[in-house]
């Protein structure tokens, strides 16, 4: 089964609330087999809307990433991000021969 990437582009509008989101989201993501491979590092926007925070996590599968998103643990964390950020989030399945 191919791995999947969880890719988020975020504009934080309330740092305190978003910090509470991050505290809960990290363990929820790890609990579903997710591992951060990029988080808040340097980036270049070539097209589209610029969002200053970019996060990529790799999961064992698309299903694991989606299950994480809908899990009670992640949803509890996400409550802190709602109203504290503008976010785009997508899960992308890797090609079978991609190695991460």
Automatic annotation (TrEMBL):
Domain DUF1330: 3-93
One Pfam family matching this protein: DUF1330
InterPro entries: Dimeric_a/b-barrel (IPR011008), DUF1330 (IPR010753)
PANTHER family: BLR0684 PROTEIN, PTHR41521
Protein name (database record): DUF1330 domain-containing protein
Species this protein is from: Pararhodobacter aggregans
